[in-house]
Protein backbone atom coordinates (compact mmCIF):
# COMPACT_ATOMS: atom_id res chain seq x y z
CA UNK A 1 0.00 0.00 0.00
CA UNK A 2 1.33 3.41 -0.95
CA UNK A 3 2.07 5.95 1.78
CA UNK A 4 1.99 8.84 -0.70
CA UNK A 5 -0.82 11.17 -1.70
CA UNK A 6 -1.71 10.68 -5.37
CA UNK A 7 -2.54 14.39 -5.69
CA UNK A 8 1.19 15.16 -5.52
CA UNK A 9 2.03 12.86 -8.43
CA UNK A 10 -1.02 12.91 -10.69
CA UNK A 11 -0.17 13.33 -14.39
CA UNK A 12 3.54 13.70 -13.73
CA UNK A 13 5.74 12.03 -16.34
CA UNK A 14 8.48 9.74 -15.06
CA UNK A 15 11.31 8.06 -16.96
CA UNK A 16 12.73 4.99 -15.21
CA UNK A 17 15.74 3.14 -16.61
CA UNK A 18 15.74 -0.56 -15.87
CA UNK A 19 12.06 -0.09 -15.02
CA UNK A 20 10.94 -3.49 -16.31
CA UNK A 21 12.53 -5.64 -13.59
CA UNK A 22 13.36 -5.82 -9.88
CA UNK A 23 13.69 -2.49 -8.08
CA UNK A 24 12.84 -0.52 -11.22
CA UNK A 25 9.60 -2.44 -11.68
CA UNK A 26 8.58 -1.69 -8.07
CA UNK A 27 9.28 2.02 -8.68
CA UNK A 28 7.21 1.85 -11.86
CA UNK A 29 4.30 0.16 -10.05
CA UNK A 30 4.34 2.75 -7.27
CA UNK A 31 4.44 5.69 -9.69
CA UNK A 32 1.61 4.21 -11.76
CA UNK A 33 -0.50 3.67 -8.65
CA UNK A 34 -0.02 7.36 -7.83
CA UNK A 35 -1.28 8.47 -11.24
CA UNK A 36 1.99 9.14 -13.08
CA UNK A 37 2.65 8.34 -16.70
CA UNK A 38 5.78 6.21 -16.85
CA UNK A 39 8.31 5.39 -19.55
CA UNK A 40 10.55 2.41 -18.81
CA UNK A 41 13.78 2.00 -20.76
CA UNK A 42 16.28 -0.83 -20.98
CA UNK A 43 18.05 -3.13 -23.45
CA UNK A 44 15.77 -6.18 -23.66
CA UNK A 45 12.54 -5.52 -25.52
CA UNK A 46 10.82 -8.70 -24.35
CA UNK A 47 11.17 -7.65 -20.68
CA UNK A 48 9.74 -4.22 -21.45
CA UNK A 49 6.78 -5.72 -23.30
CA UNK A 50 6.07 -8.23 -20.53
CA UNK A 51 6.05 -5.54 -17.85
CA UNK A 52 3.84 -3.19 -19.85
CA UNK A 53 1.46 -6.09 -20.46
CA UNK A 54 1.46 -7.06 -16.77
CA UNK A 55 1.14 -3.62 -15.18
CA UNK A 56 -0.80 -1.57 -17.67
CA UNK A 57 -2.32 -3.67 -20.46
CA UNK A 58 -5.21 -1.39 -21.31
CA UNK A 59 -3.81 2.11 -21.27
CA UNK A 60 -0.85 4.03 -22.60
CA UNK A 61 0.12 5.36 -19.17
CA UNK A 62 3.08 2.94 -19.31
CA UNK A 63 5.38 2.74 -22.33
CA UNK A 64 8.50 0.67 -22.89
CA UNK A 65 11.39 1.97 -24.95
CA UNK A 66 14.51 0.05 -25.89
CA UNK A 67 17.62 1.96 -24.85
CA UNK A 68 21.14 0.95 -23.93
CA UNK A 69 22.36 3.64 -21.54
CA UNK A 70 25.91 3.05 -22.76
CA UNK A 71 24.91 4.56 -26.14
CA UNK A 72 24.61 8.33 -26.33
CA UNK A 73 22.55 8.32 -29.55
CA UNK A 74 20.01 5.91 -28.02
CA UNK A 75 19.68 8.13 -24.93
CA UNK A 76 19.19 11.17 -27.13
CA UNK A 77 16.36 9.41 -28.97
CA UNK A 78 14.83 8.11 -25.73
CA UNK A 79 14.55 11.62 -24.28
CA UNK A 80 13.37 13.31 -27.49
CA UNK A 81 10.74 10.66 -28.25
CA UNK A 82 9.44 10.76 -24.66
CA UNK A 83 9.11 14.53 -24.89
CA UNK A 84 7.36 14.44 -28.25
CA UNK A 85 4.90 11.76 -27.05
CA UNK A 86 4.24 12.94 -23.47
CA UNK A 87 5.21 16.62 -23.56
CA UNK A 88 7.46 16.72 -20.48
CA UNK A 89 9.70 14.74 -18.14
CA UNK A 90 9.10 15.62 -14.48
CA UNK A 91 11.07 12.77 -12.95
CA UNK A 92 14.10 10.77 -14.03
CA UNK A 93 15.11 7.65 -12.10
CA UNK A 94 18.48 6.27 -13.14
CA UNK A 95 18.04 2.74 -11.86
CA UNK A 96 19.40 0.64 -14.75
CA UNK A 97 22.80 -0.82 -13.92
CA UNK A 98 24.72 -3.76 -12.59
CA UNK A 99 27.99 -5.65 -12.45
CA UNK A 100 29.49 -9.10 -12.03
CA UNK A 101 31.44 -10.58 -9.11
CA UNK A 102 35.22 -10.74 -9.50
CA UNK A 103 38.37 -10.17 -7.49
CA UNK A 104 40.11 -7.03 -8.78
CA UNK A 105 43.11 -9.05 -9.94
CA UNK A 106 40.91 -10.84 -12.47
CA UNK A 107 38.99 -7.85 -13.84
CA UNK A 108 39.97 -7.23 -17.46
CA UNK A 109 39.92 -3.75 -18.95
CA UNK A 110 36.93 -4.66 -21.12
CA UNK A 111 34.95 -5.74 -18.05
CA UNK A 112 36.01 -2.66 -16.05
CA UNK A 113 34.93 -0.43 -18.94
CA UNK A 114 31.60 -2.26 -19.30
CA UNK A 115 30.75 -1.68 -15.63
CA UNK A 116 31.95 1.94 -15.52
CA UNK A 117 30.17 2.79 -18.78
CA UNK A 118 26.94 1.19 -17.57
CA UNK A 119 26.79 2.74 -14.15
CA UNK A 120 28.77 6.01 -14.18
CA UNK A 121 28.86 7.11 -17.82
CA UNK A 122 25.28 5.94 -18.45
CA UNK A 123 24.01 7.99 -15.51
CA UNK A 124 26.04 11.03 -16.58
CA UNK A 125 24.65 10.83 -20.13
CA UNK A 126 21.05 10.38 -18.96
CA UNK A 127 21.29 13.37 -16.58
CA UNK A 128 23.01 15.58 -19.17
CA UNK A 129 20.52 14.79 -21.92
CA UNK A 130 17.36 15.18 -19.84
CA UNK A 131 18.71 18.47 -18.50
CA UNK A 132 19.64 19.75 -21.97
CA UNK A 133 16.37 18.76 -23.60
CA UNK A 134 13.95 19.58 -20.77
CA UNK A 135 14.97 20.25 -17.16
CA UNK A 136 17.26 23.25 -17.80
CA UNK A 137 14.19 25.27 -18.80
CA UNK A 138 11.47 23.48 -16.85
CA UNK A 139 13.01 22.00 -13.69
CA UNK A 140 12.54 18.44 -12.51
CA UNK A 141 13.71 15.79 -10.07
CA UNK A 142 16.34 13.11 -10.58
CA UNK A 143 17.03 10.10 -8.36
CA UNK A 144 20.11 7.98 -9.03
CA UNK A 145 20.19 4.44 -7.65
CA UNK A 146 23.65 3.34 -6.50
CA UNK A 147 25.05 0.70 -4.15
CA UNK A 148 26.07 1.56 -0.61
CA UNK A 149 29.80 2.05 -1.17
CA UNK A 150 30.67 3.56 2.21
CA UNK A 151 32.97 0.66 3.17
CA UNK A 152 34.08 -0.34 -0.34
CA UNK A 153 32.71 -3.52 -1.92
CA UNK A 154 35.19 -6.38 -2.26
CA UNK A 155 34.43 -8.55 -5.33
CA UNK A 156 32.56 -5.64 -6.89
CA UNK A 157 35.28 -2.96 -6.84
CA UNK A 158 34.54 -1.81 -10.39
CA UNK A 159 30.92 -1.15 -9.55
CA UNK A 160 31.74 0.41 -6.16
CA UNK A 161 34.13 2.87 -7.85
CA UNK A 162 31.56 3.72 -10.52
CA UNK A 163 28.72 4.18 -7.98
CA UNK A 164 30.89 6.38 -5.74
CA UNK A 165 31.39 8.44 -8.90
CA UNK A 166 27.62 8.68 -9.40
CA UNK A 167 27.18 9.73 -5.77
CA UNK A 168 29.70 12.55 -6.19
CA UNK A 169 28.37 13.56 -9.63
CA UNK A 170 24.93 13.90 -8.03
CA UNK A 171 26.29 16.36 -5.47
CA UNK A 172 27.97 18.52 -8.14
CA UNK A 173 24.84 18.57 -10.29
CA UNK A 174 22.64 19.35 -7.28
CA UNK A 175 24.59 22.59 -6.92
CA UNK A 176 25.05 23.40 -10.63
CA UNK A 177 21.39 22.87 -11.50
CA UNK A 178 19.67 24.09 -8.30
CA UNK A 179 18.87 27.52 -9.71
CA UNK A 180 17.15 25.83 -12.66
CA UNK A 181 14.73 24.10 -10.31
CA UNK A 182 16.36 20.69 -10.58
CA UNK A 183 16.87 18.49 -7.51
CA UNK A 184 19.00 15.35 -7.53
CA UNK A 185 19.57 12.72 -4.84
CA UNK A 186 20.91 9.19 -4.65
CA UNK A 187 19.31 6.14 -3.09
CA UNK A 188 21.79 3.50 -1.93
CA UNK A 189 20.23 0.10 -1.34
CA UNK A 190 22.57 -1.82 0.94
CA UNK A 191 23.53 -5.05 -0.74
CA UNK A 192 20.61 -7.31 -0.54
CA UNK A 193 17.31 -6.47 -2.13
CA UNK A 194 15.91 -9.69 -3.52
CA UNK A 195 14.32 -9.99 -6.91
CA UNK A 196 14.52 -12.94 -9.32
CA UNK A 197 16.36 -10.93 -11.99
CA UNK A 198 18.91 -9.54 -9.53
CA UNK A 199 19.55 -12.99 -8.06
CA UNK A 200 19.89 -14.58 -11.52
CA UNK A 201 22.97 -12.44 -12.02
CA UNK A 202 24.68 -14.28 -9.16
CA UNK A 203 23.50 -17.82 -9.88
CA UNK A 204 20.29 -17.74 -7.81
CA UNK A 205 18.84 -16.82 -4.45
CA UNK A 206 21.65 -18.36 -2.34
CA UNK A 207 24.01 -15.40 -2.26
CA UNK A 208 21.19 -13.18 -1.02
CA UNK A 209 20.04 -15.68 1.62
CA UNK A 210 23.58 -16.03 2.99
CA UNK A 211 23.71 -12.26 3.52
CA UNK A 212 20.73 -12.33 5.87
CA UNK A 213 22.88 -13.02 8.97
CA UNK A 214 24.80 -9.75 8.49
CA UNK A 215 21.65 -7.64 8.38
CA UNK A 216 20.50 -6.38 11.80
CA UNK A 217 16.83 -6.88 10.87
CA UNK A 218 17.59 -10.49 9.87
CA UNK A 219 15.73 -10.19 6.63
CA UNK A 220 16.38 -9.07 3.07
CA UNK A 221 15.06 -5.75 1.85
CA UNK A 222 12.22 -5.64 -0.63
CA UNK A 223 12.05 -3.84 -3.94
CA UNK A 224 9.02 -1.91 -2.61
CA UNK A 225 11.10 -0.56 0.27
CA UNK A 226 13.54 0.96 -2.21
CA UNK A 227 10.65 2.29 -4.33
CA UNK A 228 9.22 4.13 -1.29
CA UNK A 229 12.51 5.94 -0.70
CA UNK A 230 12.69 6.91 -4.37
CA UNK A 231 9.11 8.23 -4.41
CA UNK A 232 9.72 10.25 -1.24
CA UNK A 233 12.72 11.95 -2.86
CA UNK A 234 10.72 12.61 -6.05
CA UNK A 235 7.82 14.09 -4.10
CA UNK A 236 7.28 17.71 -3.01
CA UNK A 237 7.77 16.37 0.53
CA UNK A 238 11.49 16.42 -0.31
CA UNK A 239 11.42 19.80 -2.03
CA UNK A 240 14.40 21.21 -0.07
CA UNK A 241 16.50 18.03 -0.17
CA UNK A 242 19.16 17.87 -2.87
CA UNK A 243 22.59 16.25 -3.23
CA UNK A 244 21.81 13.76 -0.44
CA UNK A 245 22.39 10.01 -0.26
CA UNK A 246 19.68 7.90 1.35
CA UNK A 247 20.72 4.39 2.39
CA UNK A 248 18.02 1.71 2.37
CA UNK A 249 19.67 -1.17 4.19
CA UNK A 250 17.88 -1.93 7.47
CA UNK A 251 20.87 -0.54 9.36
CA UNK A 252 23.32 -2.98 7.79
CA UNK A 253 26.06 -0.38 7.33
CA UNK A 254 26.34 -0.06 11.12
CA UNK A 255 28.24 -2.94 12.73
CA UNK A 256 27.61 -5.18 9.72
CA UNK A 257 29.50 -8.17 11.06
CA UNK A 258 27.76 -8.39 14.46
CA UNK A 259 25.76 -11.44 15.42
CA UNK A 260 26.51 -13.61 12.42
CA UNK A 261 25.62 -16.74 14.41
CA UNK A 262 21.83 -16.21 14.37
C1 LIG B 1 31.22 -11.92 -2.11
C2 LIG B 1 29.72 -12.03 -2.21
C3 LIG B 1 29.08 -10.74 -2.57
C4 LIG B 1 27.67 -10.96 -3.04
C5 LIG B 1 27.09 -9.71 -3.61
C6 LIG B 1 25.75 -9.96 -4.23
C7 LIG B 1 25.23 -8.74 -4.93
C8 LIG B 1 24.29 -7.93 -4.12
C9 LIG B 1 24.33 -6.48 -4.41
C10 LIG B 1 24.08 -6.05 -5.79
C11 LIG B 1 23.01 -6.38 -6.46
C12 LIG B 1 22.79 -5.84 -7.78
O1 LIG B 1 23.37 -4.91 -8.27
S1 LIG B 1 21.58 -6.64 -8.57
C13 LIG B 1 21.59 -6.09 -10.24
C14 LIG B 1 22.16 -7.13 -11.08
N1 LIG B 1 21.82 -6.91 -12.48
C15 LIG B 1 22.76 -6.71 -13.38
O2 LIG B 1 23.97 -6.67 -13.09
C16 LIG B 1 22.27 -6.59 -14.80
C17 LIG B 1 23.16 -5.76 -15.68
N2 LIG B 1 24.55 -6.25 -15.75
C18 LIG B 1 25.18 -6.53 -16.94
O3 LIG B 1 24.62 -6.42 -18.01
C19 LIG B 1 26.64 -6.93 -16.86
O4 LIG B 1 26.95 -7.32 -15.54
C20 LIG B 1 27.60 -5.82 -17.33
C21 LIG B 1 29.01 -6.24 -17.06
C22 LIG B 1 27.32 -4.49 -16.64
C23 LIG B 1 27.45 -5.60 -18.85
O5 LIG B 1 27.67 -6.81 -19.51
P1 LIG B 1 27.81 -6.91 -21.12
O6 LIG B 1 28.03 -8.36 -21.43
O7 LIG B 1 26.67 -6.23 -21.77
O8 LIG B 1 29.10 -6.03 -21.41
P2 LIG B 1 30.20 -6.10 -22.59
O9 LIG B 1 30.50 -4.72 -22.99
O10 LIG B 1 29.80 -7.08 -23.62
O11 LIG B 1 31.51 -6.60 -21.80
C24 LIG B 1 31.53 -7.81 -21.27
C25 LIG B 1 32.87 -7.97 -20.52
O12 LIG B 1 32.64 -7.80 -19.11
C26 LIG B 1 33.31 -8.86 -18.39
N3 LIG B 1 32.29 -9.70 -17.79
C27 LIG B 1 30.96 -9.57 -17.91
N4 LIG B 1 30.31 -10.50 -17.18
C28 LIG B 1 31.26 -11.22 -16.56
C29 LIG B 1 31.25 -12.32 -15.64
N5 LIG B 1 30.11 -12.87 -15.20
N6 LIG B 1 32.42 -12.79 -15.20
C30 LIG B 1 33.59 -12.26 -15.62
N7 LIG B 1 33.67 -11.23 -16.49
C31 LIG B 1 32.53 -10.72 -16.95
C32 LIG B 1 34.16 -9.58 -19.39
O13 LIG B 1 35.42 -8.92 -19.47
C33 LIG B 1 33.39 -9.39 -20.70
O14 LIG B 1 34.18 -9.48 -21.85
P3 LIG B 1 34.24 -10.86 -22.67
O15 LIG B 1 34.82 -11.85 -21.72
O16 LIG B 1 35.12 -10.56 -23.83
O17 LIG B 1 32.83 -11.17 -23.03
N1 LIG C 1 19.28 -5.96 -5.76
C1 LIG C 1 20.13 -5.42 -4.91
O1 LIG C 1 20.42 -5.98 -3.85
C2 LIG C 1 20.75 -4.11 -5.21
C3 LIG C 1 20.62 -3.49 -6.43
N2 LIG C 1 21.21 -2.28 -6.67
C4 LIG C 1 21.08 -1.59 -7.95
O2 LIG C 1 19.72 -1.32 -8.20
C5 LIG C 1 19.52 -1.26 -9.62
C6 LIG C 1 18.41 -2.21 -10.02
O3 LIG C 1 18.84 -3.53 -9.75
P1 LIG C 1 17.84 -4.75 -9.48
O4 LIG C 1 16.47 -4.35 -9.76
O5 LIG C 1 18.18 -5.30 -8.16
O6 LIG C 1 18.37 -5.81 -10.57
P2 LIG C 1 17.88 -6.10 -12.07
O7 LIG C 1 18.96 -6.93 -12.66
O8 LIG C 1 16.50 -6.60 -12.03
O9 LIG C 1 17.86 -4.67 -12.72
C7 LIG C 1 18.85 -4.12 -13.53
C8 LIG C 1 18.13 -3.38 -14.64
O10 LIG C 1 19.06 -2.56 -15.34
C9 LIG C 1 18.81 -2.68 -16.73
N3 LIG C 1 20.07 -2.42 -17.43
C10 LIG C 1 21.26 -2.99 -17.22
N4 LIG C 1 22.18 -2.52 -18.07
C11 LIG C 1 21.54 -1.60 -18.84
C12 LIG C 1 21.95 -0.79 -19.93
N5 LIG C 1 23.20 -0.81 -20.40
N6 LIG C 1 21.04 0.03 -20.50
C13 LIG C 1 19.76 0.07 -20.04
N7 LIG C 1 19.32 -0.69 -19.03
C14 LIG C 1 20.20 -1.52 -18.44
C15 LIG C 1 18.34 -4.12 -16.90
O11 LIG C 1 17.54 -4.30 -18.07
P3 LIG C 1 18.13 -4.96 -19.41
O12 LIG C 1 18.99 -6.10 -19.01
O13 LIG C 1 16.91 -5.32 -20.21
O14 LIG C 1 18.89 -3.85 -20.07
C16 LIG C 1 17.50 -4.32 -15.64
O15 LIG C 1 16.17 -3.95 -15.88
C17 LIG C 1 20.85 -1.60 -10.27
O16 LIG C 1 21.57 -0.41 -10.56
C18 LIG C 1 21.52 -2.38 -9.16
O17 LIG C 1 22.92 -2.47 -9.29
C19 LIG C 1 21.92 -1.65 -5.70
C20 LIG C 1 22.09 -2.23 -4.49
C21 LIG C 1 21.56 -3.51 -4.15
From TrEMBL:
GO terms for molecular function: trans-2-enoyl-CoA reductase (NADPH) activity. The keyword Lipid metabolism applies. Keywords: Fatty acid biosynthesis, Fatty acid metabolism, Lipid biosynthesis, Lipid metabolism, NADP, Oxidoreductase, Peroxisome, Phosphoprotein. GO terms for biological process: fatty acid biosynthetic process; phytol metabolic process. Pathway: Lipid metabolism. Its main location: other. The keyword Lipid metabolism applies. It is found in: Peroxisome. It catalyses: (2E)-hexenoyl-CoA + NADPH + H(+) = hexanoyl-CoA + NADP(+); (2E)-dodecenoyl-CoA + NADPH + H(+) = dodecanoyl-CoA + NADP(+); (2E)-tetradecenoyl-CoA + NADPH + H(+) = tetradecanoyl-CoA + NADP(+); (2E)-decenoyl-CoA + NADPH + H(+) = decanoyl-CoA + NADP(+). One of its GO terms (cellular component) is peroxisome. Its EC number is 1.3.1.38. Interacts with PEX5, probably required to target it into peroxisomes. PANTHER family: PEROXISOMAL TRANS-2-ENOYL-COA REDUCTASE (PTHR24317). Participates in chain elongation of fatty acids. Catalyzes the reduction of trans-2-enoyl-CoAs of varying chain lengths from 6:1 to 16:1, having maximum activity with 10:1 CoA. Has no 2,4-dienoyl-CoA reductase activity. This is Peroxisomal trans-2-enoyl-CoA reductase. It comes from Homarus americanus (American lobster).
